[in-house]
Amino acid sequence: MKNKVDEFISNPRKALYKLAWPMLIAMLVQTLYNVVDTAFVGRLGADSIAALTFSFPLFFILIGINSGIAVGMSSRISRFMGEKNKEGAENTAMHGILLGIFFFIISVVLGLIFIRPMFNLFGATPAVIELAVDYFSIVLMGSIFMFSAYIINNIFVSQGDTKTPMKIQIFTLLLNIVLDPIFIYVLGLGVKGAAIATVISFTIGLILYSYFLHTKSYLHIHPQNFTFSTKLIKEILMVGLPASIMMIVMSVFLMIFNWFMSYFGTDHVAAFGIGFRAESVVIMPVMAGSFAVMTLVGMFFGAKRVDLIKGIVWHAIKIGVLYTIVVGGLFFIFPSFIYKIFTSDPVLIELGIPYLRIVVLAYPFMGITMVIGRTLQGMGYGMPGLIINLLRTILVSTPLSYLFVFVLGYGYLSVITSIVIASIVASVVAIVWFEWEIKKAIV
User: Distance between CA 110 and CA 125 in Å, rounded?
Assistant: First the structure.
């Protein structure tokens, strides 16, 4: 495999689509992982489903930590690729793997100490806590394979290869589908079986990643060439830590807005949850595009081709906005159809129709903030993306929701309106910040 920088520079738009579509499929596959586990465990009863449900926020934190390291590493590798500094890119990859192992050790130590108190804090019953501990402790101990696989996944992505990770993730999903019923039902291991199947899938995935890293990758891991660099560690964490916090912020955002909705009743919480799930599927192509943009921006920035960055970013934004307007328009016209995919409860459908018709107004602005946030990460700036995300999720919408609901006495739709307002504010700040950074880079 060769360095693809020159190929991408010659046709940035083609490169964007070439990188984005395998990422989209990989994201859909990742989403299906949880769906598959839940589908098989669901036949064991309500306690088993609850155990997985209580485990998901902690699993999400693990993914957030892992993703942050990978994003920080990817940003630096992409810039080294643009500079055509293969040695620097490979050394960064090795630093990423070491950081993944370091944070895995911290996660295991803290997890084993606090796992039971955390489930108790979440409000799980004693029976559910035992099942949740059985499930999550196995996943936690096996997360070394997840951490390592995800790091190597991003080594491929950062050098412009998104097809190899897509193929591996599809294979591991299919493997998980085969292993789940064997370990859960045939061997009678229940939720433990689901966890073991997941860990085995991650392990096989890591073996495949390692094999292709050795045989197919432009970048390779040479331990004998490793040179420890505190500067590289700092550069990875400067982008990676804010990226990790961004994922944790999303969990906090959901908890806060579930709390606001709970003021109006359980049905409102359920309606909000369904709307959010629909939104997460809709926004996935924009997320895939934003990750592709991050790789390209990193390469162009490293190659000193700042002139290409503005063009490809605005092209990605235009495509993202057009897509979200079209899909948002369909949601606006057919909201009841969307809700009926998830529920047959007429009360939830009635609550969800006006919710969906308001929240779609935020979709184009969400797309703008995602693309620009990843762009700035690609340039090596981690904090702007975090601040923009905080504006969109917490800093603006939370006080507005409190004002609307508890001070002015407005209904549940005012909470959704606050999300739209926050998304608009965040997108304006994102555009101004991006233009400012581009001007600085050109000078």
Answer: 22
Query: How many other C-beta atoms lie within 10 A of the C-beta of residue 11?
Result: 11
Give the SS3 label for residue 218. Answer: coil
Helix, strand or coil for residue 114? helix
In eight-state DSSP terms, residue 169 is: H
Residue 288 to residues 4, 75, 181, 315, 385: CA-CA distances in angstroms?
A: 19, 16, 31, 14, 16
Spatial CA neighbour of 425 closest among 366, 354, 351: 366
| Cβ neighbours, 10 Å, residue 30 | 14
The count of C-alpha atoms lying within 13 angstroms of the C-alpha of 379, restricted to the half-sphere facing its C-beta, is 27
Please report which residue ranges of 143-189 form alpha helices under DSSP H: 143-158, 163-181
Q: What torsion do the CA atoms of 278, 280, 285, 286 make, to the nearest 10 degrees?
A: 120
The radius of gyration computed from the CA coordinates of the chain, to the nearest angstrom, equals 22
Burial label for 360, CB within 10 Å (0-12, 13-18, 19+), is buried
* Residues above pLDDT 90, as percent of the chain: 65
Q: Which of 206-215, 244-253, 332-341, 404-413 has the lowest mean pLDDT?
A: 244-253
Check if the beta carbon of residue 368 is closer than 8 Å to that of residue 320.
yes
CA dist 26 and 35 (Å) reads: 15
Query: What is the pLDDT confidence band of residue 1, given thresholds at 50, 70 and 90?
Result: low
